[in-house]
Amino acid sequence: MVEEGDLGIEEELASELLGGGRGHGLSLLHPEPPPTQGPVKRVASPVTCESRLRHESPAIANRLPPPARRRNRFRPPAPVAWLHMHEGTWTLADCPLDAQSELVRELGISELTAAVLVRRGYSDAVVARRFLDGEQPPHDPFLLGDMEAACAQIRAAVEQGRRICVHGDYDVDGIAATTLAVLLLRELGAEVAWHLPSRFDEGYGVRGETLARLADEGCGLVLTVDCGITAVAEVAEARERGLDVVVTDHHRPAETLPDCPIVATRPSEYPFPELCGTGVVYKLGQALFGVDSEIPRRHLDLVALATIADVVPLIDENRSLAIAGLRALARTAKPGLRALMQSAGVDPATVDAGAVGFRLAPRLNAAGRLGHPREALELFLTEDPAEARRLADSLEELNRERQAVEGRILREAVAQVEAWPPEQRARRAYAVAGADWHEGVIGIVASRLVERYHRPVVLIAGTDGDWKGSGRSIPTFDLHAALGACAGLLGRWGGHRAAAGLSIAEENVDAFAEAFAEQAATVLDEEDLAPVASIDAVVARGADLSLDLCAELARLAPFGLGNPAPTLLAPGCGLAELATVGDGKHLRFRVRRDGRDAGSAIAFGLGSRLEVLRPDALYDVAFRLEENHWNGTVAPQLVVRRIYGTAPRYRELRAWLAAEWKKPESARDAEAIAIFDELRIVEGGPRRDLLESARFRGLLAAEPPLAAAA
User: Which ranges of 314-384 does DSSP label H, i.e. alpha helix?
Assistant: First the structure.
């Protein structure tokens, strides 16, 4: 179960799924940006074009170095800004030019957007067009586990007049899945009840006591949603009591499965195993009513809400469900969703994945984090606008309380880590505990610590009885496997590679922290702890970062796990008009390349770098291009993710290649010819940046000749 606050793991998981690099703390969905106007602190130094080469030589004697341990990764050099800025590295996958050119020709898109698509695996024009249109055909629902048996058992319960109870979970996905199942069963004419567990009284999953109570109350069938895949003993006990169970779930199963019909993404022959719990219930609806039926389609707004909030990959069928669901959410007739959007300040006409992930989902999750999730479920189900407004206001208040609690725990956790001795700070995985921390928000805070320290973190909260822990990881570290190695110190535990939960006796906390760190030390090296940004395309010199390009890139939305907003790289830039905004938290500047203005930029959270960045230096700027709406005007804006010091040899090599290009082909250096051929540079042809060439990147990383001679 991954919840709305787990922003730190979204990009890491996306990079892992896409086969790219790591990106710690880089959220896929941008939060509500602070205003970029107002009081500013300025640095007045002008941008200059003066050369700052560290080494000068009459010719480029270097050739490509031996292959590195990890290919296609470029680490900014230690001189200039990197050591001070800790910005880590970036990685750039290969982009076959034939495939890129075909997309440009067949789809009528820019070279830059075509490069993004090719690097994300959409090199075939037909597949790329289908991706852009969001028209993934639905997969056969009957391939999803025991779907036929599940439908038969549900229909039999309805025909026999047996009461059905939907057992859900306390996060957005679990609540939305419960709502959808209740609505679908009502369409079948079933007598339906529902049960959502309390995070604090029952915890995650299906408990035997709950099933026993439901059996005693006369329930004939329990339909689990977003849970139940590991409830082997609980299901067996329920069946002994005469209570039938159908499990629908999307979590990782154990070695043994419950003895009942299971509709789950694993194990299954279903071709796309990344549905969320609500997505699985939607497929159950398709199986019950027909793939083309309007009955499940009426509730695509709930499916989109859960799919985005549960941070599942927004590719394949999830992409189609999210696109259709966002359209349904914009025109939803559900009073609860309309009241929620009004309370959260979301305009239904412009609702997108960012609004769901950062405005709607936190309010819904607040119910389960600090209280009971029933308020969120009642909000979804109510048909009374006045009741919807009351419930939305209550969730708004809970969310404000959640923010305050989360902020306090984060400050205390950071202070605790900062006070550790150096050898403890050097651990490659952290376990941090607080006796009075609120277990409902520790998952969010664990994500914040992963963003801050670039390593796996388990946060543990003191509770009555066993303490509760929540962990978040980085892509190179399997958190589930690590907890398995430490299982002797734990009570209950579970989850997956990137996120997990646990219970632990208070006296075992210190031993677990040491064992967890030792496990990480056997898997991770120092390079694994450095943040890495995956670059989708390098902006060619002279390229126009226009509103038209913004609109073209926006066709790749909705953005999220598996499909992050494209990250572009503008190399060799000057930073002009440097200033801070938002009480010094954020950095605003203009980007200049070759003496030309390339656009306005905002770097959220980088205000402290104002004194480090030099207006006379060159930087490689990693950014996302977005529309900036301000005072009734719309303009393109570079939303900066990372600022890297440009390699010292960049200008030298560019100048050398420019000189080589002017020579007759027969007189050109062989290395220059190889770079030109790799980029397919021809007079009047498409412009491509030198960094698109692996050979050029190799020369940048190679030791300069004078340094080698020394």
Answer: 316-330, 335-344, 353-355, 361-370, 374-381
Q: Are strands 192-195 and 163-167 parallel, antiparallel or unpaired?
A: parallel
Same domain, 375 and 410: no
Contact 629, 66 (CB under 8 A): no
Helices (H) and strands (E) counted in the chain, each on its own, are: 27, 20
Q: How many domains does the chain have?
A: 4
Asked if residue 646 lies in contact with residue 618, where contact means CB atoms within 8 angstroms, the answer is: yes
Q: What are phi and psi of 523, to 5 degrees?
A: -110, -40
- CA 410 to the chain's CA centroid: 21
Residues 321 and 352 in one domain: yes
Strand pairing report for 73-74 and 89-92? antiparallel
390-418 burial, b at 16+ Cβ within 10 Å, e below that, comes to: ebbebbeebbebbeebbebbbeebbeebe
User: In this structure, what are the phi and psi dihedrals at residue 91, rounded to the nearest 5 degrees?
Assistant: -130, 145
> The tokens of 42 are what?
């300025």
In the numeric block, the tokens 């403890």 are attached to 424
Which residues fall within 8 angstroms of residue 650, CB to CB, at 6 or more apart?
571, 572, 618, 700
Residue 382, both tokens: 């109510």
* Residue owning tokens 């999803």: 144
Q: Residue 124 is part of which domain span? A: 101-133
CA 400 remoteness from chain centre: 23
619, part of any domain: no
Q: Which residues of the chain have pLDDT under 50?
A: 1-86, 706-710
Length of the chain: 710
Structure-token pair, residue 431: 């376990």
Domain assignment of residue 22, yes or no: no
Whole-angstrom distance, CA of residue 578 vs CA of residue 584: 12
Residue whose C-alpha is closest to residue 444's, from 171, 693, 188:
171
Distance of alpha carbon 5 from alpha carbon 499, whole angstroms? 12
Helix, strand, coil content of the chain in percent (nearest 5) = 45, 15, 40
**Stretch (H or E) spanning 92:** strand 89-92
**Phi and psi angles of residue 619, each rounded to the nearest 5 degrees, phi first:** -135, 150
Q: In this structure, which amino acid lies at residue 395?
A: L
pLDDT of residue 252: 84
Q: What is the CATH number of the domain that holds 330?
A: 3.90.1640.30
Please report whether residue 340 resides in a domain.
yes
- CB contact at 8 A, 350 and 376: no
**At 515, which CATH number?**
3.10.310.30
For residue 347, the SS3 value is: coil
What distance in Å separates the CA atoms of residue 544 and residue 538, rounded to the nearest whole number?
13
Tell whether 214 and 128 lie within a shared domain.
no
Omega of the bond leading into 267 within 30 degrees of 0 (cis):
yes
> Taking the complete model, does pTM exceed 0.70, yes or no?
yes
What is the CA 204 to chain-centroid distance, rounded? 23
* Residues 519, 442 share a domain: yes
Q: Which two tokens stand for residue 194?
A: 């529902």
In a domain, 557, yes or no: no
* Same domain, residue pair 129 and 145: no
Is there a single domain that holds both residue 225 and residue 325? Answer: yes
Distance, CA of 377 to CA of 155 (rounded, Å):
24
Please report the sign of the dihedral spanned by the C-alpha atoms of residue 686, residue 687, residue 691, residue 693. Answer: positive
291 DSSP 8-state letter: T
Contact present, 590 and 597 (Cβ < 8 Å) = yes
Tokens 């941090």 label which residue? Answer: 432
pLDDT at residue number 200: 80
Confidence at residue 524, expressed as pLDDT on a 0 to 100 scale: 95
User: How far is 353 from 308, CA to CA, in rounded Å?
Assistant: 6
Looking at 474, 504, 529, the residue that finishes a domain is: 529
Q: Tell the residue number behind the tokens 């900062």, with chain if given.
A: 418
Q: Are residues 112 and 205 in the same domain?
A: no
For residues 225 and 168, the answer to whether their CB atoms sit within 8 Å is yes
Domain end, chosen from 529, 549, 571, is at 529
Does one domain contain both 232 and 148? yes
- Give residue 541's pLDDT: 87
